[in-house]
Amino acid sequence: MTRTISLRDVTKVYPRDVVAVDRLSLDVEPGEFVVLLGPSGCGKSTVLRMIAGLEDITSGELLLDGNYANHLPPGQRQLAMVFQHYALYPNMTGRQNISFPLRIEAPHADERTRVNEAARLLGIEDLLDRYPRQLSGGEQQRVAMGRAIVRRPSAFLLDEPLSNLDAKLRNRLRAEIATLTRHLGVTTVYVTHDQSEAMSLGDRVAVMRDGVIQQVGTARDVYRLPENVFVAAFVGTPRINLLRATVHAPLDSRMSIDFGTQRMLLPHPLSPDHQMLRVQMGREITVGLRSEAARIASPEEMRPTEALLNGVVQHVEYQGHESLVHVSTGARPADVDGLEAPRPTGARRSRGRRQGRGRLGRLLGRVGQGTLNGGRAPVTTLERPPPPTPAGRTSDGLVVRAGTDVQVRVGERVPLLLDLDQLYVFDSEGRRICPAPARRPRPPA
Ligand SMILES: Nc1ncnc2c1ncn2[C@@H]1O[C@H](COP(=O)(O)OP(=O)(O)OP(=O)(O)O)[C@@H](O)[C@H]1O
């Protein structure tokens, strides 16, 4: 059996008025794998713990298979939770650890078949007689998973189960968890602050910030259609380039986006999306461009949907199959608050960041650095070239993906062709206005 998990307007207030979760609603369908993704302290674990029954719900409703479940003790919820810290009993073997929940439920039953079955699924049959200290981190986490699945739960709640492991092992176990939960067909809610983990695991990803869900969607949707600048900045590597800009819309000439040192003329006639920008005239906007939306190429190669910018190469990250080129264009980077919440080493994190800020005020604020320059469609006006920046300084560089055939040197001035179909614009409150909410960007050529 697998379950539906529904949260309706759920709020959690800890002592001293710390609002950890704020009117959160989410429906997880039977067999679905949903990832809660967000920076440290945004309330992910609290949501999981409320579903598990380890935290009381301050207000709102938890429904399990449509039935009100706020009051059910953890043991009656038939949910299995796996934590970041494996929490194995050190004086028990793998087999004893895995069988422990069964022995609690039915002390005299023979649990060997179920333990063997769980061990086979996890590929740890040979490790059952070892103690935790004789197991690697990945093996310990498999035993912890074994302890969770042996009860044949109707849902898994996984709280950063891989974060203590090294990157290689994490990737491997990630794939194993995806295969295992699919095989078992069990509803899964998985918490992580690692966006690449979220994107590779979940049927859907719920991006959280300050106790509030910002967007729920497939990995593709949250990447390609971020509803606000926070989601755009939190999801994707390298981080989306974000630039401050203004819309210039004179009655007698073409509309443009100004980045300060460079002006990007919008193609005429305006696309429906670009028409939406007219109302932003005079207000500050944020322009977002992912690294794959710009290319270093000669202006003669410019396509009708591209715009030209010039920049100066600041730094080149060689990645083998490609290079990430940091280019200074002289535009002002936009900041998004809260993306980089420091991750405490202990279990608890900072609190009470909510006071004194409106909801939308909190939205803007948290993006890291990113730099972009706007250039613009069929015609780009370079009013003045960007000033060269000291070599090695990359914080204000627009990051552009380049193939291995593109050879550039630090300090070199390069043309950038920007794909306008992949241009995001966010209003002064951080909401995406372009592509318009009902429209989708075209896939890259
Ligand atoms: N028992 C508690 N008492 C008081 N405040 C708490 C308690 N547990 C969590 N908090 C606060 O609630 C907020 C959300 O915490 P939570 O652990 O849910 O965040 P998280 O997104 O899971 O973070 P992390 O990724 O670091 O695990 C934080 O501000 C945290 O300090």
Automatic annotation (TrEMBL):
CDD domains: ABC_MalK_N. It comes from the Bacteria. Residues 5-235 form the ABC transporter domain. Keywords: ATP-binding, Nucleotide-binding, Transport. Residues 333-396 are annotated as: Disordered. SMART domains: AAA. The keyword Nucleotide-binding applies. Residues 346-360 have a biased composition (Basic residues). InterPro entries: AAA+_ATPase, ABC_transporter-like_ATP-bd, ABC_transporter-like_CS, ABC_transpr_MalK-like, ABC_transpr_MalK/UgpC-like, Mo/tungstate-bd_C_term_dom, P-loop_NTPase, Transp-assoc_OB_typ2. One of its GO terms (molecular function) is ATP binding. This is ABC transporter ATP-binding protein. It comes from Streptomyces johnsoniae.
